[in-house]
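It is worth pausing here to work through a concrete case rather than discussing structure prediction in the abstract. The textbook approach is simple: state the sequence, then state the predicted structure, then interpret. We follow exactly that order.
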Amino acid sequence: MSAELTLGQALARFAAGTDYATLPSAVADSVKMRVLDTLGICVAASTLSTSASARAFAGDQGGTEQSHAVGVAGRMPATVAGFVNGVLAHSLDYDDTHLPSVLHPSASVVPASLAAAEATGADGAATIAAIAVGLEVCVRTGMAGYDAASGTSVFFEHGQHATSICGALGSAVAAGMLYGFDEDGILHSLGLAASMAAGIIEANRTGGTVKRMHCGWAAHAGIAAAQLALHGFTGPPTVLEGRFGFFEAWLHGQFDPAAITDQLGETWSVPGIFFKPYPANHFTHTVIDGALALRQQGLTADDVDHIEVGVPASIVRTIGEPIDVKRRPDTGYMAQFSGPYAVAAGLFGGSGLGVGLDDFTDELARDPERRRLMAKVTVVADEECTAIFPHQFPAVLRVRATDGREIVEKVLTNRGGPQRPLSYAELATKFADNAGRLLPDTTVDDVQSAVAGLDALDDVSALLTPLAVPLTIKP
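Step two, the predicted structure:
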């Protein structure tokens, strides 16, 4: 990209010059998988109390009937549909993750793009291109705030949720493409969304359900920005790097502009975004993998005298402290953030891709047998794992068996990432496990087929209409 362009202009030119025909096949295929993954998560999350709250909020808004939301009959304004689906997509901690930025890009960009596509009548090929660009914008703006020296996100260190902040920008660019904007129009969408981007993560520490709302609001902001640009509002060309711009406001000027422009349009981040095979905090996934491997080797909970879980030093506080709480989670949600429970899930569980939603219930979190095993698990910092983090979230399980055996199981790369990718068939299994608990098998199959042929669809409503019905868990 030309050095004469501002960062916003560079992204807008990239977006305006991208369509389905110019996408690498790996990017287009990855987008289809992310659409399928996101829709399945939305269905599975639709029974949560926060999902009911999002639908109630949507019902209060009124407005033009444009787009569908999962679990809601009929259409609603695109901004509101994007909000509802974005809330659902991020509510189970099951959505995809980019590393090392630790962003969850699809949970905002996919709902925003599908809602905008329905509102504008865009076809499937245009929708794929918009999602691809939106994801790329989200990741690149997030990586601009990644500090390689410390291995941390500057957004995170400031208490900011980069997922929703950068997700609003990616959603706005994607929506602008679907509204048919040229380079200037896309730049205005980006410039407007930067004044709407939001999200703080204090709820991770002290409670509250607001984090579930973040990706919904990012999708809402992205679509609203495009609609405001359509009606004449404009944004500054230096919206990102300007003296009073996005990176100054959020990161106090500490950002890497090269992360946005280097090889833009030539090297794509999209295929490298990690899918989540398990519905738990991503830090626990290699722990689950290690426990599954031990189970396959014949180890049972009764064989365990003690298990030491070694993880990167900075992860210990999330999945291992305070250890008494992590060994006795009260709810399935607390279990999603517990290293000891991850061991129990792998040794006891078995659904979905090895461990699924049925393995993270309130009842199982309090199960006496699982708690007996969790009492034997400690979580410690491991030097080898720390050296790899945050490009992977590795774990080393060291087992002392009741018969005196010492067993070591290392899992140094995450399943679902580039080194251990999930196939489309495996993502279809995850989708069926998620969506099949509320939808008839025929509907699950129909949506899978529609996503597989998304590039040939004249109307993306074929994806959403079957899901836009009241949903309850099947008996």
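Step three, interpretation. Residues 282-411 form a domain with the 60s Ribosomal Protein L30; Chain: A; fold (CATH 3.30.1330.120). The beta strands are 67-68, 75-76, 146-147, 152-153, 304-311, 377-381, 395-401, 406-411.
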